[in-house]
Design a protein that fits this description.
Elements (H helix, E strand, L loop, with lengths): L2 H10 L4 E4 L6 E4 L2 E4 L8 H9 L4 H10 L1 E8 L1 E10 L2 E9 L13 H7 L4 E6 L6 H15 L3 E6 L12 E6 L7 H8 L6 E4 L5 H12 L3 E6 L4 H10 L6 H11 E11 L6 E9 L2 H8 L6 H6 L9 H10 L5 H7 L3 H8 L1
Parallel strand pairs: 7-11, 7-12, 8-9, 8-10, 10-11
Antiparallel strand pairs: 1-2, 1-6, 2-3, 4-5, 5-6, 12-13
Helix pairs in contact: 4-5, 6-7, 7-9, 9-10, 12-14, 13-14
Length: about 350
């Protein structure tokens, strides 16, 4: 099978991901599980290179040769986010399917808090979780809500661009790292001079990007960004810990004033076997939460998160328990994805 036949099979089977590796047939991910494409034999070194290089133009091939890894998007039947990398001297690749249509918050069955945060006029809103947890999709839905309801200037910086947003009420400019700008930090600096109302940072990877994003939120812009953290409270600590110790008190103050909320999410297999569903932890930065951030008492935020339903807050365990009680996910799967399974067991009693 060539690349196009493999992608055709993946689209037909509604796979979320495709993996290419030497010595294995193409691997598809269905509902979170990896399964081999049985009708295709294991790929040799030359087979793997042929399949992977077919996605690249000459400039991309040169970059791959220099850097030994490459991010890009590839269009055929569907749209795919692609990461190509070298392992043990051989090429390998992971492709993530991206729908052409930007999903709505309602279609994703996200809690009301997500829409409430998207409608904020200023501040920093973070969407966090491990790789493959649906962060980009949630952010795209939040941006689409603004695009539908507000006449704003929205600038996104992504690596690579995933969802393509049409202009609705808003004007949207989407910039891709390594194509339209050398880095997140430089693009973010540029964005502040481009009359933005809303800025989306695909990933806050380094101190400079985090610093500019926090400052942009503090100075009246609405800033969305992602981090690879496991829960809302750890996200706050991660932002502050990136800075040198001498700056952390000032950063705590900035974060307490600028951060509006944190959404932390996991994708859990559905009990009916029909895909996965998002379990959402939502933290709203109330005056009490802001005070704990300033006072270096972020560990106490967990108790506010668990008792903050009136403000729209929900802990990951509460979200998992609700999914279990509604028989959307199995209890064993929920316990696997919980950071505090003993507490979840008590909630399920």
């Amino acid at each position: 099978m060539d690349l196009y036949q493999i992608i055709q099979k993946a689209v037909e089977k509604q796979a979320s991901d495709i993996h290419f590796a030497v010595g294995l047939p193409p691997i598809f991910r269905f509902n979170g599980q990896l399964l081999a494409l049985e009708e295709c034999p294991p790929l040799s070194v030359s087979d793997t290179e042929t399949v992977i290089l077919k996605m690249l133009n000459d400039d991309q091939k040169k970059k791959l040769e220099q850097q030994h890894s490459l991010d890009l998007t590839f269009n055929f039947i569907g749209r795919f986010r692609v990461n190509i990398f070298q392992e043990r001297g051989y090429l390998a690749a992971a492709l993530r399917a991206i729908p052409f249509e930007v999903p709505s918050i309602e279609k994703l069955n996200l809690p009301p808090l997500v829409a409430e945060l998207a409608r904020k006029q200023r501040g920093l809103i973070l969407v966090t979780g491990p790789t493959g947890s649906g962060k980009s999709t949630t952010l795209a839905a939040m941006v689409d809500l603004i695009n539908t309801e507000e006449a704003d200037h929205i600038i996104t910086v992504e690596d690579p661009i995933e969802y393509i947003h049409p202009h609705k009420k808003s004007v949207i400019h989407q910039r891709e790292v390594q194509v339209d700008t050398p880095s997140f930090s430089l693009a973010l600096r540029d964005a502040l001079r481009q009359d933005p109302d809303v800025i989306l940072v695909g990933e806050m990877r380094d101190l400079e990007t985090i610093s500019i994003a926090v400052t942009a939120a503090e100075t009246g812009h609405l800033v969305f960004a992602t981090l690879h953290t496991v829960d809302a409270v750890q996200t706050i600590d991660r932002i502050i810990d990136v800075f040198p110790e001498a700056q952390q008190s000032q950063v705590r103050l900035q974060v307490s004033l600028g951060l509006q909320g944190v959404i932390s999410q996991r994708l859990i297999p559905r009990a009916d076997g029909k895909g996965r569903v998002a379990a959402i932890e939502g933290l709203v930065v109330t005056p009490a939460v802001a005070n704990l951030i300033r006072e270096k008492k972020t560990h106490q935020i967990y108790s506010l998160l668990e008792t903050g339903s009136r403000e729209g807050m929900i802990s990951m365990n509460q979200s998992l328990a609700e999914l279990c009680k509604n028989r959307i996910v199995r209890i064993n799967d929920a316990l696997t994805y919980s950071g505090k399974p003993e507490l979840l067991k008590r909630l399920l009693l």
